[in-house]
Protein 1
Amino acid sequence: MPERINKFIAARSQWSRRQADELIARGLVTVNGTPVTPGATVTDADTVTVNGMTISAPAALLYLMLNKPIGYITTTDRRMSDNVLDLVPSTQRLFPVGRLDVLSSGLLLLTNDGELTNRLTHPRFEHEKEYVVEVDKTLTEDKLDVLRHGIRLRDKLTLPAKVRRLTDRGFSIAIREGKNRQIRRMCEYVGYNVINLRRTRVLSLSLGNLTVGRWRYLSAEEITHLRRDTGLL
């Protein structure tokens, strides 16, 4: 049955429909060897390529949660050592949803669902992620208030955050954006150096007691909640 080209690509790759439209506009998508235009329809009998890569038949959608260890890189480049993809099954092509820097640990979602990936990572959706942070000095309430109300990073104010003290040097913070090294930079702004940074939650999905370096499949209920929370249901 014919379907729109952007939907066809999103169902079979890491790209969302919006990203597929951008690739089409850049002339990077062909159908049976001919550049395609937005809005075109295709079937499984057609050969669709994106930037020279053939888009195969739709794979079953997979959703994994990994408790990323410190020292592993969040990348899809299999040539790089200490890659988070080395820690999960390699029978299906999976993509990390967002990033955790090499010195951070915790919840990392991996999937082949391009639409969900886009909803969770595009800044305009402002989906909440929570972290537990340990710093090198005793926390003060005035500095925690600065983190709560937002600070200026590269001339742009961060969105308000939910901050809760856990110990003398530890706190949790929930943010709705994902600027590069944002929490580390926010802490540096108020005079703290981060000793440990661990992501514990993405929307309703919590890390729980999953062991560091281990992974598990999401339950059907967790997938439903994620897709509902991101507006896909």
Protein 2
Amino acid sequence: MIWPENVISITNHGLFLDSPEYSEIVQQAKRLNVPFVVGITEDAGQNQFTNAQVVVEVDGTISGRYDKVRRVPFGEYMPLRSLLKSLGAPTDLVPRDARAGTSRGWLDFADTRASVAISWEIFFGGRVNEGVTDGATFIINPTNGSSYTWTILQTQQVAASQLRAREQGRDVVQISPTGFSAFIDSNGTVHNRTSIGEQQVLERSIQLRSGRTLYSRMGNGVYIWCLLIAFALLARRRSRAIRIGAS
């Protein structure tokens, strides 16, 4: 059972493990006999918070945690806060900064490994590739684009999930309470996409895949080489046209 990004917010310097929400999730995990992968935020002191996905097992143990590494600037944190504040910028619009995670981008649950890209991390191929390199068999993208509801970003995020699926040869599960939820197969085809913010339980069998694609092995170098080859061909064609014109 996979839930979206930051659907549980723990305030007053509390911990998810001590919250009533945790107890309720354990009850549901036992009832359904499946682990829950849940998006949480927790206070982290000194005007900071964490944004993470945690795995709650059927017996209530927290078997895994991934804290978001790529934070949204001017959304989840304010870069150069002191400087911008001295210049009169409204830095109080982002009163707290998300603390960046440092762990590798994957979680183990249900006897397999998933590459995890929280929210806009799906736009960065390297974040997803990290989990695939470490043996992930599919990709999850828990997200919560509440600041961008009814904007083109929601469609762009689905497109980014399609790109990651084709790059890695992996199925993607995208989960959102405020945007689109969907399954994307390894060919980039979208299945069971909800409407924006539609409350629905989605179920679908996905393929768990191993091995690595050319992109997974070379990263963005694939695109760089394609651009270099294209420029070389264009330069050669232009040079040939100039020689023909001169003759």
Protein 3
Amino acid sequence: MSIVENKTLLKAPAKAAHFEMTYWQQQGMLSGSAGGRNLAYFIAADNELSDLPMVLRHYYRGGMVGKVNRDWFLRTGVKRSVAEFELLDWMHGQGLPVPRPIAALVQSKGLFYRADILIERLPCDSDLFAYLSQKPLSEAGWAQVGRAVAALHRQQVFHSDLNCHNILLADPADNDTEVRVWLIDFDKCHRVTESKQQNTTYNEQWKSQNLQRLLRSLHKEQQRIENFAFTETDWQALMSGYQQAGETAQ
């Protein structure tokens, strides 16, 4: 077993029990959950591990393999929870709108391992999907989403699953006029290598593909949900914010 910690956010060393939902339930600190088949659990602030509210997430396999092997991964390369922890820590240090990682766990057995991560729970109101299911987002809000994605791309971070469920929103705070935006779920994401950054064509392609993935997710929900508040004008506002932030991907 190995644990990676963000010691600046901890009140005490993390232990394996801190990565178990039942432990926090017994402590009376479990405040909710989100997600479908693979739940993320919310842990209240001012708990025994950290002053921050936290999200606990276990790593699961997807696709056909996941039907017979839910959560064991082959021990090759950097472990998924550690990779996400390190990427989040680096991105937050660059000022990107992402949650801070608190701790990551790897439990090995033979050639395989299981993994969990604890991250900061952000002060958001909903994800972009839930928001648009209830009401439209303003033009300024869409531009803010575009700027958040552009900030990620400026730092050469490829988000492998950029969709409307992985963008969190909060209504403007006091004395603020803009909606707040964060990006989440950086499992299997990475920074583009320096050698590939020099390839202009490659850079334009992966950024464009990232944006198109987000657009497809919005179109998918638009077809599935009645009165889903998304129009092509909204996408133009997002792209305007993206381009104004210094990116040129289409």
